[in-house]
Give the backbone structure.
Amino acid sequence: MPWLETQRENEKFKMVHTLHAAYFILHLKDMLSDDFDLPPFLVFPSWEKSLEENDKVTISSTKQLIADIFSYYIEPTIENIEDVFNFAESDEKEFLRRIEASNLFISPGGEIGEPLKKAIQNYKAEAHKWRTEEFNRTFDSAPDRLVVINGIMERVQPQYHILENSYELRSNPLLCVDAQAHYFKLISKMTNQRVFNIEHSDKKHYRYYLL
């Protein structure tokens, strides 16, 4: 659905992503059997992009989640998205150093813990492969701090939907992509610590929050 419900003007090959999704979903077909009382899986449209563009609660909550990630791992004085950009601009070198130290930026297809310089190069190479020339002209001229912020925002934004769906379905997500699991762990750690700080209780009381 993310490739069908919005224009995605910066993407060169939108249909390729749609075909990829269909291809992997079809792998689940072998799990279908008459032996199950209930279907073993359910595929449903979550309308993520429509919510991101039009739903005020989603827009506000997603921005706050992104700001909270930067606040917890990079700079405690950050309270909103504007603060992220202001801090990065005030001391880009220190900002990027903290990003690398916290493993907060993982490039598409990259490995957790990869050097930041390499991650930025990989991210730009991926953009040249999949995104439009207009997007890449702007992207290539952007300073590293903005490239990194954009990449982290693209990583964290889908996590909001994972958390929301997990809560609504009363279930834990099963993430098979290392980078996605990495960001979910980062958010879980942040949430666990904040609950612990607020309640001033022993961590064992909140073990059910842990990934």
Q: What stands out?
A: Residues 144-169 form the longest helix (26 residues). Confidence is low (pLDDT under 50) at residues 205-211. Residues 46-209 form one domain. The chain has one domain: 46-209.
